[in-house]
Amino acid sequence: MGRRRMGRPAAGLAVLLLAVVALTGCKQDNTPSEYNDITKANFIAGCTQIDPNSGDTISDRNGAPAGVCNCAYDWFTENVPYNTTAKNADPKFANYGGKTFVELNIQLKNSPDAFPSEITAALTAACPGFGTTSPSAGTGGPTTSAATTSSSTAQ
Fold first, then answer.
1. Which of 42, 95, 111, 124 has the fewest beta carbons closer than 10 A?
2. Beta bridge partners of 50
3. CA end-to-end distance (rounded Å), the chain
4. pLDDT digits (tens, 9 = 90+) for 56-95
5. Separation CA 149–CA 14 (nearest Å)
6. The pLDDT value given to residue 78
């Protein structure tokens, strides 16, 4: 007796299961690995406290004007390496001894009022109007997350 051939529905199901098994091995990580449009959008949303998708206020903290937030983001991209990889790879950060953007984000999520004074001073000098509000990641400040919701910037 020979092997039985699978009917069309069974063959389709087998192909579908094979695809599902293959796809479960793929891990998607939407967390940015460098400064990009995602980090900028989330930084600006956290800084202004306004969800860019809905226009709703993200938290009860006062946000800064968008111009100040754009200036602050630009300052970060020029003066603070995004992560350890960027810190080690980019010659402009060869003498940089502070925390990376990602490390600052983690620090601020854990302790929102722990914004480094040297960065605050530099941002105040570079971006008129900065310092009139308190940026913090855990409550919507600089963030590296990929998704923004109307209630928070999630990571």
1. 95
2. 57
3. 58
4. 887 777 788 999 999 999 999 999 999 999 999 999 999 9
5. 37
6. 96
Burial grade of 79 (CB within 10 A; 0-12, 13-18, 19 or more): middle
Contact call for residues 93 and 87 (beta carbons, < 8 A):
yes
What are the DSSP calls for the chain, one per residue?
A: -PPPPPPHHHHHHHHHHHHHHHHHT-----S-SSSSHHHHHHHHHHHHTB-TTT--B-SSSPPPPHHHHHHHHHHHHHHS-SSHHHHHH-GGGTT--S--HHHHHHHHHH-TT---HHHHHHHHHHSTTTTSS---TTTTSS---SEE-SS-EE-
Contacts of residue 51, Cβ cutoff 8 Å, sequence gap at least 6: 45, 57, 58, 148, 149, 150
pTM for the full predicted model: 0.65
C-alpha 39: how far from its chain's center? Answer: 4
